[in-house]
Amino acid sequence: MLRYDAGEVITAMATPFNEKREVDYSSLEKLARHLVDNGSDTILVAGTTGESPTLTHEEEFEIFYTVKSAVCGSAKLIFSAGSNSTRTAVDVTKKMSEIGVDALLSVVPYYNKPNQQGLIEHFGAIARATDLPIIIYNIPSRTGISMTPQTMAFLAKEYSNIVGVKQSFGDMDTVSEIVELCPDDFVIYSGDDSLTLPMLSLGAHGVISVASHVVGSEIKSMIRNYKSGQVHAAKNMHKTLFPLFRKLFMAPNPIPVKAVLSKLGIMENYVRRPLFELNEIERLELFDVLNKVTESLKGME
């Protein structure tokens, strides 16, 4: 049994904005209900996909309350409470512990590039500040450093509420080391849609996903098929979805997925600066891949 089970498909939720690039709370409610109806077990609020670097803390808290009200208990909620300041991360962790979130995602500190002992001190302080489950977010492409499997294992053994990792790093040997060194009840989530199936084969539980905004039920089907021994079906679904997985990262996340959600009529296509929306040629390329994947999925029914 896992220390904490947030389900197999966690969606890192985008934050809708209006033309003034203010949070569009009406579209936020619509998006939250869409995710619950289309395969998401849990919603991650105010993560990178939610453009957290440009959100104020007040906006983040209001987004959380809005999503919580919209899903009415039909999905778990994880809040992204990390920071590259240990003091700030601890303060936000304490705040979220008071308002009813199910778990926290805490990113490896970015920009200041601490060593591994610094990571132990940082996450230890966060773990001691709450009883909530904490999922480490290890994403070297954004932080500039990687938490080693040895550091992860130390934290998992030292703190029972450090329950898992979102591993956004394509080195499968590292995933194997995490599986080998960490306790059996430590949960591993793929942080990249395209790596979900490979990581499942090494013991991952599921994915913290961007593509699940669009193909959440299909991703869940892929995971369930793999776990039930229907490996060929899982492989075929991965193969079908893979072009969309890749195309949704043709530009910095969440620019492409917001373009798709706008096309689907769920929200407007606005991102906050310094991000910039896709141009017309890029949108047509993305929508062409989306249409081809959609047709392929129809052929699998």
In short:
The chain is of the alpha/beta class. The chain has helices at 25-37, 57-71, 86-97, 116-128, 140-143, 149-158, 172-181, 196-200, 212-227, 231-247, 255-263, 280-300; strands spanning 9-12, 42-45, 76-80, 103-107, 134-138, 162-167, 187-190, 206-209. An eight-stranded parallel β-barrel has the order 1-2-3-4-5-6-7-8, surrounded by five helices.
Keyword list:
alpha/beta, 12% strand, 48% helix, globular, TIM Barrel, 12 helices, 301 residues
Give structural notes.
By secondary structure, the chain is of the alpha/beta class. The chain has one domain: TIM Barrel. It contains twelve helices and eight strands. The chain has helices at residues 25-37, 57-71, 86-97, 116-128, 140-143, 149-158, 172-181, 196-200, 212-227, 231-247, 255-263, 280-300, and strands at residues 9-12, 42-45, 76-80, 103-107, 134-138, 162-167, 187-190, 206-209. It is globular.
